[in-house]
């Protein structure tokens, strides 16, 4: 397992540094880690057990086994098989989408959101991925689609164009514009000024669009996988809890400070909140 | 059970008024719920008094007219250990209005005796908050048998170690899904310098549930009294075969064994320092038996001892108006992983299922509770309709056999609906018939495509794309630099002439050579003369028409060129004049020599004459 948590306090014999009393008063860390243990065991169930048992199966076989288990209502087994397919090298949006479905049906909203989000990053134009991610995030209180028909339409258009196609478009526009400039320098005026300006405007628009899409992909995000996770002001259990955050909410991973073993600094930009959380309470995307 | 509830109020000022009203009443006996807008929060304790070794259940219920209710924010309770005991939720639709209830259960395990106040529990809704009123809970002394007494013993004083750990299981053979209780005990009789760090065992192959609270007691082991701290975990094997529970670890920091903590020597105790030790238990192997064959039809993996109950939220309705069928599976076993109920065919109803609610209780260190499955039934015809019985099969590991539970058939009286379009609930805005009606929302089904391929590297990370773009930029840069060079160079005709002087002179020398090869000495001499004069004029910034030898030499002097160069210029100048005016006396060798001298001179001057503005 490798996870280390603080053992419950010993009320009978504790001596030494008086500061230890503070940690005793704060209570048993099991209070905070009780849910984590359950979740970690859930993780182990299909991250360790099933990948091990399926270690001799090819990723495609694991995927097929996951589909079979899902169809039979064995959602935990399905999740393990999909996870095995993914760790076996089958990094495909379909695998993550199915993994999200299995986790959702197994009652693990946080892990479902994480898997759907990975599927969304790989294929944001798929309507089923968007639907399921939006449904799961809505349950977590953080809907994916903006409210209002126009905003929702704009959002869909924004993600409708595949990133590869957008990159190709930007690159083609850039090459045409740069080549036109080069020819202009050489004294050959190939296109009128209005067309050149339109080309530049198209490049600026598509370049910004593409850049924002890539930046969103580069963002380090995580999903809360335990119910009502407590976010503390510092990376230790003695720091007071600033706020709690429901399972399934997506948070930003901050790297403003030196990493602390077992803890992650997270931010919730929409609420303007940030704090520290045990790394067992989140799953990074 | 003491339940505290509040009144529905709008806005903070009214909430404050009611809070003041409640102040005149006993906290513990009156409803203490506040709400804001459409969200209401209720908190209750199952007892007013709890012993130190017991637990009190705190239930926080949030209700509102939205299916997406926020979670409560528990205040800090330093005098209690808090364990999550599951949530349960319910939704209902009445006259097209949604109402939802989510109950969060917590177990409070007190740490010390006294009377404690549980501060208001808050819930955030739409940027504003609602809270319950404070509640009080009295903690009394525990039973004498459970009260631990600190042992004063010296590490290693009686030959036994001062601290050690063990893990035990209550059974070494179990069926798949049958609970096995793992107990991790710490036997201790030495002072600890800091809180120990517990490393749980590797329980791959098990679904695990912790069983709070920890137990503290004294026990005799190896002939010595120890303070024992015990943690229990329920393990549910998931696959048949030999399942291994790895070693559990405990990292402790104890006083240095070299010093006697009870010697009374403060300096020795203080400067003796701590010693960090890692205590490990032995691994345990469990023989996991497969569930016996044949399995009954409808069995999908439930193991334990369960009871089934079913009920409708109402017994009469109208066509198009939903009724909710709830099926509760309650008992001992792995409640969380209970498979879904297989619903029978509901004739005369349209259906859609909602998520199951889980309520777990770990009383007496047993995983028990209930899982409630709900399905909304929308009658499509009027009359006395019957909801068919629901069956649920499970394996009872104690009896070693399968059992199938059946609910009783339920009847519901359905009246004819109004003539107009029906609105059976939120999201059901479509007309009753014959159009499409949305019955509910569930995730979309998995993809079963074959021949999946791993995602290739995205185009924006492709090196080829960067190379292609870089080439375009290089082209533009080159063109720009070329244009710049041209502009700078051609804007100064004197400089152009200066730079092109040698090339032009060499061309004329070639022409002279051609004349010479045809024995046209005069023409060859003229070309050579033009080459020399043209070169000197271009390099010295003079006009080459009518250039005089004197002017050239004077300028060369001003430029401080070598005297030998000047002499050479004079010699060649005169020689070429001679060739031009007395061609008959000139041999081809003389012309060749003159050409060679001119080339040598030009090469020399090319290095010596620098550009000057």
Question: Tags for this entry?
Answer:
heterodimer, A: 285 residues, alpha+beta, two-stranded antiparallel ribbon, 55% helix, 12% strand, globular, disordered N terminus, B: 613 residues, Immunoglobulin-like, 10-stranded antiparallel β-sheet, 4-stranded antiparallel β-sheet, elongated
Walk me through the structure.
The complex is a heterodimer of chains A (285) and B (613). Chain A has 285 residues and is of the alpha+beta class. Helix content of chain A is 55%, strand content 12%. Chain A has 10 helices and 8 strands. Chain A has helices spanning 20-25, 29-53, 59-71, 75-87, 93-105, 109-122, 127-139, 149-160, 163-185, 193-218, and strands spanning 5-6, 221-224, 229-232, 241-245, 250-253, 263-268, 273-278, 282-284. A 5-stranded antiparallel beta sheet of chain A has the order 7-6-5-2-8. Chain A has a two-stranded antiparallel ribbon with strand order 3-4. Chain B has 4 domains: 40-140, Immunoglobulins (Immunoglobulin-like); 163-258 and 273-289, Sandwich (Immunoglobulin-like), CATH 2.60.40; 308-415, Immunoglobulin-like, CATH 2.60.40.10; 493-608, Four Helix Bundle (Hemerythrin (Met), subunit A) (Up-down Bundle), CATH 1.20.120. In chain B, a hairpin with a 2-residue loop joins strand 10 (122-125) and strand 11 (128-131). The chains are: A alpha+beta (285), B alpha+beta (613). The interface between A and B is large, with 99 and 99 residues.
